[in-house]
Amino acid sequence: METRERPLVDVFVADKSPLVRMAMKTLMGADPRFNLLGTAEDGELFLRAVERLTFQVGVIGWTMPYMDGAAVLEALRHRPQAPRILVYTGDPDPAIPRRVMDLGGAGFCCKSESPERLLAAIDTVARGHMTFPYTDVGRLSERPASPLDVLTARERELLACLAEGQSNACIAARFGISVHTVKFHLKNVFGKLDVSNRAGAVAVFLANARRGGSAA
Fold it and tell me: pLDDT of 112-150, one tens digit each?
């Protein structure tokens, strides 16, 4: 019986480290299963690649400038035919895999794992499966202690700027990002806090501060 070769899996990588991006090119260039279409240094550039390219798997970092891994997953979770996302990070926070799963990510791999384990994880995700370390799934639905706990670090920073009365343009200049990215982040903030505008978000921020919560 004649066997058909499996088609190459198109992959795009986003990571803040140039060494990681170079290593990815080497790894995938030597593996006949994968075709690396390109790399990006931040989440905003990764989303631009999603707009112009078609690929099955995105391998992204968790901590990236402009748009971090959480923001990328938020942007893609309701997008039709979005690539499946594997988060690849060296951040030791044990809550990150649960967060990735909750945001619709397809997999998680720690940078302490071997290159072979990373490639196996990419292959698993490409086949339509999920791959995560052990996660207490029951804790995914636990309510956070503070309303601001649902926000990423960057989102909390932007919310603090809102509370100071800064405009979108001022916030963009302060963080070296585009006004479009600021608007994207604020839209996510409003949705997560279940408010409809800046005033509502600032009210939640101030209420949290009065309770002794932290925006950091």
Answer: 999 999 999 999 999 999 999 875 445 444 555 567 777
Which DSSP category does 38 fall into? E
Q: What domains can be seen in the chain, in order of their start residue?
A: 9-138 (3.40.50.2300), 147-209 (1.10.10.10)
Token output for 173: 């200049």
- The structure tokens listed for 146 are 């503070």
Q: Are 86 and 113 in contact (CB under 8 A)?
A: no
* pTM of the predicted model as reported, rounded to 2 decimal places: 0.67
**Residue located via tokens 């636990």:** 142
What token pair was written down for 147? 């309303």
Q: Are 158 and 215 in contact (CB under 8 A)?
A: no
The per-residue DSSP string of 132-163 comes to -S---GGGGGPPPSSGGGGS-HHHHHHHHHHH
In this predicted structure, the answer to whether residue 102 has a pLDDT above a threshold of 70 is yes
What one-character DSSP code corresponds to residue 139?
A: G
Question: CA-CA distance, 129 to 106, in Å (whole number)?
Answer: 7
* pLDDT computed for residue 212 by the predictor: 58
Q: Beta strand pairing status for 57-60 and 9-14?
A: parallel
